[in-house]
Sequence to fold (337 residues):
Amino acid sequence: MNEFKRVLVAGGAGFIGSHFARLLIEERGCEVVVYDKLTYAGNPDNLRSIEGDSRFSFVHGDLADPVALSQAAAGCDAIVNFAAETHVDRSIVDPEAFITTDVIGTFRLLSVARELGTTRIVQVSTDEVYGSIANGAATEGWPLAPSSPYSASKASGDLVALSFHGTWGLNVSITRGSNTYGPNQYPEKLIPLFSTNALTGERLPVYGDGMQRRDWLHVRDHALGILCVLEQGGAGEVYNVGGGNERTNMEITKGILAALGLGEDLINYVEDRPGHDRRYAIDSSKLSALGWAPAVPFDEGLAQTVRWYRDNRQWWERLRDRSEFTAWQSSWYANRR
Fold:
């Protein structure tokens, strides 16, 4: 198993990245440099528990700035890239932002890693690059068939990363995680949006018939899967990180309402979004062979997550009060009610 003394976590103020940064410090004891642009979804509050730790440092920077990125990565023996635009809905409205960050930004990070001679790189991707899966589960060799600008940008970033391995031998691996949930997730994705809507008495906007199926993975299990790839993954290899918990969006919606003791009258069926994939499913046996397995039962994890949003209103109320959230919600759902 590879051991690392100093790791750059790009996008480490975001949801999964912040959980991973804390994991590195608390369970591996290594130095962590978080490099983050602090877009609307980047939140310094996610790092409060480690901000006073001598092993932690934060650099406010953009992947588009190779000088700042190079300075932050200097002395790091590994880089894990979480930095990305990730919300499918937003990619439909502003696809250029996704290409800029997820493709060009990934290219710049890989270029810096190559120039510095960084020992190890992990590119964090998504199961959405496989597109909608009618039957079975996608393995890492499954054809890429992205449907949205978001998934297309992530698939492109994956291919750029693999090209750096194939051309220059860069020691890079790719992880493709399934839908991730848990504490500290910005309240625009399904579980935090519906939880916080319900807690404020707002209706829950369910796309179409609500029968879209996703595989759900707790954020701690996801972070541990990425750590396993960082330490044991092969150069030029791709690893699926799935929870093995397929649920429909409607099941998730009703589960949130039940956890809060609320009725289903809060459900509001709205017009489906364009190109909405029907089902995602991935086979994670390749990663399981390295010793990783998800540990958080879904029903337990969902209930814990909903309770976290119930008990931490100050964390998300500040975010929902900002114009970045209110303007987006009002514009996106205006014609779907």
In short: The chain has a mean pLDDT of 97. The radius of gyration is 19 Å. The longest strand covers residues 120-126.
